[in-house]
Write the structure tokens for this entry.
Amino acid sequence: MRFISLDTSIIVSFARLFEQSSSVYRKPSHSEISKVLQDLAIADLDPKIADSGLSKVKRVEFLLYTLTSEDIDSTKGQDLFFRLLDLLRGYGGFRADSDNYVGKEAFENFKYVLKSSGIFIDDGGNIIPVILDNLTESEYEEALLKYIRRAKKGSMDAALLVGTSKDLLEAVSYHVILKKMGTYQQKHFPTLLGLAFNCLGMTTPVDKGEFSHVERMESSFYELGCSINNLRNREGTGHGRPFLPSIADHEATAAIEAMGMISEYMMKKLEQSY
């Protein structure tokens, strides 16, 4: 399973890729979209049932909004997004010389919106890994903050940075260390998190002396962060789920929310350190 945080800007800009040209009918067709909905067992949500004249843009927009609402399994929204993206790519939607080309303005806008969320799409319509060098420092921080906001709401797609094996807390820790120390190649998570805490003047359990209430809280954050990291699914089992299959949904949600809370605290401390 591939994950992208489907917020309003991404949904709107993606739906615009299905805008019809006045001179040529671009594929995929409505019937092909219907086939995807049937394959995903979500045809009952199709707004075209009630409005046969609905445009592809409005149809895709409605479906993605509906499938990312809180009371619906968010994986269906992910499935639909990537199936439709695959259809566009298959029909040459990202080739400028194709009759089905989505259009330069729509594609450039979609790329811009994705980049602002820390996601990259190449000229062939392929989602590619998030690489720190591809973003300016301010863009990278903004991308992290967007993931943090999603994580605090318990969104499963916020736990892992798209296209990477890093979870949110790892990414924030690396960012802190890079800002404070420069390049640092530490793979051992407890050491990585401990160094990031140290860079921010935060307390960890190895510190000596009497802890204030805030220091005790920070020390607990460290232990919580390490515990969450131990729940990570690194083998790819669970079909893209960021946690081991043995972790219940409510436990995974709590872990993601905690990940967001700790990450936000670290980013605030980083901001205050300058």
Observations:
- Residues 235-240 have pLDDT under 50 and may be disordered.
- Residues 8-128 form one domain.
- The chain has two domains: 8-128, 133-272.
- DSSP finds ten helices and two strands in the chain.
